[in-house]
Amino acid sequence: MPEPRLHDVSCLSGHGLHRMAYWEWGDAANDTVLICLHGLTRQGRDFDVLARAMADRYRVVCPDVVGRGRSDWLADPMAYSLAQYVADMVTLLARLNARTVHCVGTSMGGLIGMSLAALGNSPLRKLVLNDVGPRIDGAGVARIGRNLSQAQVRRWRTLDEAADAIWAVSTGFGPHTREQWLALSEPQLKTDGDSLVPRADAKIALAYKAVTADDAGAGEAILWRAYDRVACPTLVVRGEQSDLLARDTAAEMATRGPRARCVEFAGVGHAPMLVQPEQVRAVREFLLSP
């Protein structure tokens, strides 16, 4: 199997420049780009299976959002915000010099993609929102907060031990073989002495926990306005058991804004990892449809 190329781009924050890493698959000269954006504490290698499936038609670019994967950590943890992530992606898109851009975003990555698609003169021509929408259910928010709290200090001796611990808070991703789960877990980790530790900055939790109920209400209104400005064809992917994207919200997304097409996968919660063949097939068919 081919391996991706690792690059980086310098992005601006309130404390200067930071380096954002990104993984690139396919023909480096292809000006038709698929950008894949991961969830809150994940990283770009989550999309390896999807990227391999799409690299025949796209240059597939999978960033490690700042604070995750191979990217730098921010000096100010409160700067881990949707506005910063969107600004970083605009910088990346300028670097890529793409003629056509499609986007797949999982959870937090979907909010980034939706925000990009809502910008005036957005280059995005198709958008996949993976188990996320403008209205985010409180049960899912609370669960993620609990998982972040439990993740402050984690060290493991082996990849198997780490993979088991990550799985304990990731069962919503749905069934995976052991081989698939180890492949999804290994890029989450780095070596520290004789232990494995997460690549993600634990301080991401500080910004997440600082969001108040009033902030959340205002944020939902802003996200609905953004969604209603999206003009490109949009696919909403939902896990049948999702505690973050309610079925009613997905149904509303099908009737307003870009009037998204919706697909739901049984036996999966938050969020489908786009590893299983039926999930990859649904995304590929949407992206390549006229």
Summarize the topology.
Blueprint: E1 5-13, E2 16-25, E3 32-37, H1 48-54, E4 59-63, H2 82-96, E5 100-106, H3 108-118, E6 124-130, H4 138-150, H5 159-168, H6 178-185, E7 189-192, E8 195-198, H7 204-209, H8 213-229, E9 234-239, H9 247-253, E10 261-265, H10 277-288
Parallel strand pairs: 3-4, 3-5, 5-6, 6-9, 9-10
Antiparallel strand pairs: 1-2, 2-4, 7-8
Helix pairs in contact: 2-3, 3-8
Structural features, described:
The protein has one domain (5-138, 216-288): 3-Layer(aba) Sandwich (Rossmann fold). It is built from ten helices and ten strands. It has helices spanning 48-54, 82-96, 108-118, 138-150, 159-168, 178-185, 204-209, 213-229, 247-253, 277-288, and strands spanning 5-13, 16-25, 32-37, 59-63, 100-106, 124-130, 189-192, 195-198, 234-239, 261-265. Strands 1-2-4-3-5-6-9-10 form an eight-stranded mixed beta sheet, sandwiched between helices. It has a two-stranded antiparallel ribbon with strand order 7-8. Helix 2 packs across helix 3.
